[in-house]
Automatic annotation (TrEMBL):
Keyword Cytoplasm: no
Family membership noted in the UniProt record: Belongs to the class-IV pyridoxal-phosphate-dependent aminotransferase family.
Keywords noted in UniProt: Pyridoxal phosphate
Molecular functions per Gene Ontology: catalytic activity
SUPFAM superfamilies for the chain: D-aminoacid aminotransferase-like PLP-dependent enzymes (SSF56752)
PANTHER family per the UniProt record, alphabetical: AMINO-ACID AMINOTRANSFERASE, D-AMINO-ACID TRANSAMINASE, CHLOROPLASTIC
Gene Ontology biological process: amino acid biosynthetic process; carboxylic acid biosynthetic process
InterPro entries per record: Aminotrans_IV, Aminotransferase-like, BCAT-like_C, BCAT-like_N, Class-IV_PLP-Dep_Aminotrnsfr
Superkingdom of source: Eukaryota
Signal peptide segment: none
Cofactor(s) essential for the protein: pyridoxal 5'-phosphate
Protein name as annotated: Uncharacterized protein
Claim: Zinc is one of the keywords in the record: no
Length: 304
């Protein structure tokens, strides 16, 4: 795998699989022992980081709300430069770059929290992925997951506490389904284990759950901006999209009447969902709106 890693514990950048030096995480780092860490990730397309500024702002918000540390404008600028350097050093043209912040460790112990003035430890990893992974080739199958969703305080920040997400994916795989989807505590549609979900309803509205019980997705918000851009309106109407709405909770019954359903995120782009809980969505094929939004997002990556 082509890529590079910044190791904040050693303050070095190394290439992935470089036999001369390997990145390490200290055994006593609370990001490892206590899960006290946050992360964010953005797509690398043609060597450029898509929506990096927005991902960094969310990264900083997650770090602050998780009590990992504060990142002022200067720290964000430093992190942005570091991310770009890691991508360049790794020779990554199509893939992902991930940023991690842990609360670190001051000594060899397993304490729950460290000194109040202890700075975060940062890690950045950029790696190459198959560019064709973004292509909308076949539809995905999805199912509602029995795994409880995280409480809103934790569901709305991007921490590394992904045990529920992993369990959602494991159960889905065990049931022969591509994607498991969290339901909220009220039984409404939540999110996938690593991406948002959206539905095109017969009135031409692309609906997605509000970011009150789920993580506010950077990619799906960019889709909102593109949908609300006047120059895109005519082409969007041709595929049945008139507006975007994330103001209302979505009942599972929305799926039954949806013309199209899709998974949206930086790691997957826009992927069609053709069945949900064993029921066909729309005509059971990846629809024109899904395919158009996937291409619209790719065009956006090329232009930024």
């Amino acid at each position: 795998m082509r890529g590079a890693v910044y190791d904040g514990a050693l303050d070095v950048i190394v290439r992935v699989n470089d036999a001369r030096c390997a990145p390490v995480m200290r055994l006593y780092d609370r990001g490892f022992t206590r899960g006290h860490a946050v992360f964010d990730a953005c797509t690398v397309h043609e060597g450029r980081c898509h929506l990096l500024a927005a991902h960094l702002r969310r990264f900083a918000r997650s770090a602050r709300e998780a009590g990992v540390g504060e990142m002022n404008d200067e720290a964000l600028a430093t992190m942005e430069a570091l991310v770009l350097e890691v991508v360049a050093r790794g020779g990554v043209t199509h893939g992902q770059v991930r940023m991690y912040a842990t609360s670190g460790c001051e000594s060899e112990n397993f304490s729950l929290c460290g000194a109040t003035d202890s700075p975060p430890t940062y890690y950045v990893v950029a790696y190459e992925k198959d560019p064709d992974a973004w292509m909308v080739v076949r539809g995905l199958t999805a199912s509602s997951s029995p795994v409880p969703i995280k409480p809103p305080r934790y569901a709305t920040l991007k921490s590394t506490n992904y045990l529920p997400n992993v369990n959602v994916a494991q159960i889905a795989r065990g049931n022969g389904v591509d994607v498991g989807v969290f339901l909220t505590q009220d039984g409404m549609i939540g999110e996938g284990p690593g991406a948002n979900v959206a539905f095109l309803t017969p009135d031409g509205t692309l609906r997605t759950p509000p970011a009150t019980n789920v993580l506010g997705g950077i990619t799906i918000q960019r889709l909102r901006e593109l949908i609300e851009t006047e120059s895109n309106r005519k082409a969007l109407r041709k595929v049945g999209i008139k507006r975007f709405d994330d103001s209302q909770p979505l009942s599972p019954f929305v799926v039954l009447g949806a013309e199209e359903a899709m998974l949206v995120g930086s790691a997957v782009g826009v992927q069609g969902i053709i069945s949900w809980d064993g029921r066909q969505v729309g005509d059971g094929r990846v629809g024109p709106a899904t395919s158009f939004l996937a291409e619209l997002l790719l065009d956006d990556m090329r232009s930024i």
